[in-house]
């Protein structure tokens, strides 16, 4: 390794140490408001640190919305919130053109920006709206821009969508289009808190004063950390593990469990998500490079919303997470 490579490596190490300090401060600030749910907080932070979007799935009352608003505050992001309802229209998200008339009688259209023009967009109960309205976010989530009446508008950077979703078994919900699901970097399943955390919730949130979070980093600093994560090295073994995992989740690749139970599997975007989030997880835990264990740990959050089971598998009570666990348990090297 020559002097230039040595200096570059030392710079990355120094940047990583500083980023780790900032991430630790973010975790501590979030923990003042969100009790327990460490795995959920970690997964959502990994999605944001990787520069992507996250879908939080769980029954009402599990602090999903509170977690999103807290992260917006702590990360210094300018945010907007949309409450998705059955009568919501695409223009309620993207914005619309209005006809104006000047004092001279000249008429012209003026574009009024919708709530999507934010650094952090909270899409609350996203599956309460129709698929047509849900799809209004497709371009913004992938291209970080929107097109209205032929005009192109860039969104603020960074731009993140953190959406909450009620279980599909509940009344008044619509399944998200597969194309939109694929644009979420991670799906985070939010479960009930443990007994100790729930006890703390009862004590801390029903008194006269309630703890609030404060900003820890700026949006500019967040983008610096996101850039650092993309510079982190990925070993050949980790790259091969990602390829093996994603390809084994697709029918027709020679993996018996998948061929029997999976109707369609993840595309290349799943591999991209694993490359980014594995790096982010390594940094989150104080390491300079991801390992195969990071790939295994992120298999379910990355793959579960990018796969569909056959009717026969569903009839047998098999779940997507069961199939992913079997795939991830095999030798990925």
Automatic annotation (TrEMBL):
Statement: the UniProt record of this protein carries the keyword Transport: no
Keywords per UniProt: Coiled coil, Hydrolase
Keyword Hydrolase: yes
InterPro entries per UniProt: ATPase_AAA-3, CbbQ/NirQ/NorQ/GpvN, ChlI/MoxR_AAA_lid, P-loop_NTPase
Gene3D superfamilies noted in UniProt: Magnesium chelatase subunit I, C-Terminal domain, P-loop containing nucleotide triphosphate hydrolases
Pfam family, one: AAA_lid_2
Coiled-coil parts of chain: 6-33
Domain ChlI/MoxR AAA lid: 259-326
Annotated EC: 3.6.3.-
Sequence ranges assigned to domain ATPase AAA-3 in this UniProt record: 53-186
GO molecular function list: hydrolase activity
SUPFAM superfamilies: P-loop containing nucleoside triphosphate hydrolases
Protein name stated in the entry: MoxR-like ATPase
Organism: Martelella mangrovi
């Amino acid at each position: 390794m020559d002097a230039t490579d040595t200096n570059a490596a030392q710079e990355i190490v120094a940047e990583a140490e500083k980023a780790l300090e900032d991430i630790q401060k973010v975790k501590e600030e979030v923990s003042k408001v969100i009790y327990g749910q460490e795995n959920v907080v970690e997964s959502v932070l990994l999605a944001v640190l990787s520069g992507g979007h996250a879908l939080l799935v769980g029954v009402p009352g599990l602090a999903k919305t509170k977690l999103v608003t807290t992260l917006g505050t702590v990360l210094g992001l300018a945010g907007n919130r949309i409450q998705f309802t059955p009568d919501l229209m695409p223009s309620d998200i993207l914005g619309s053109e209005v006809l104006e008339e000047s004092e001279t009688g000249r008429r012209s259209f003026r574009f009024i920006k919708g709530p999507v023009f934010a650094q952090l967009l909270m899409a609350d109960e996203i599956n309460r709206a129709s698929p047509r309205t849900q799809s209004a976010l497709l371009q913004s989530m992938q291209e970080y821009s929107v097109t209205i009446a032929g005009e192109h508008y860039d969104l603020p950077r960074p731009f993140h969508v953190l959406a909450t979703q009620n279980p599909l078994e509940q009344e008044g919900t619509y399944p998200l289009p597969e194309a939109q699901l694929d644009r979420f970097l991670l799906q985070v399943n939010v479960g009930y808190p443990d007994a100790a955390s729930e006890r703390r919730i009862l004590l801390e949130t029903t008194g006269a004063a309630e703890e609030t979070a404060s900003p820890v980093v700026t949006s500019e600093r967040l983008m610096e950390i996101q850039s650092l994560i993309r510079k982190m090295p990925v070993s050949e073994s980790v790259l091969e593990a990602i390829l093996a995992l994603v390809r084994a989740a697709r029918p027709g690749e020679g993996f018996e469990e998948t061929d029997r139970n999976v109707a369609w599997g993840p595309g290349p975007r799943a591999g991209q998500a694993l490359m980014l989030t594995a790096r982010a997880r390594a940094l989150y835990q104080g390491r300079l490079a991801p390992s195969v264990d990071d790939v295994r740990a992120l298999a379910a959050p990355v793959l579960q919303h990018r796969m569909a089971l056959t009717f026969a598998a569903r009839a047998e009570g098999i779940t997507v997470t069961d199939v992913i666990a079997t795939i991830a348990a095999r030798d990925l090297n």
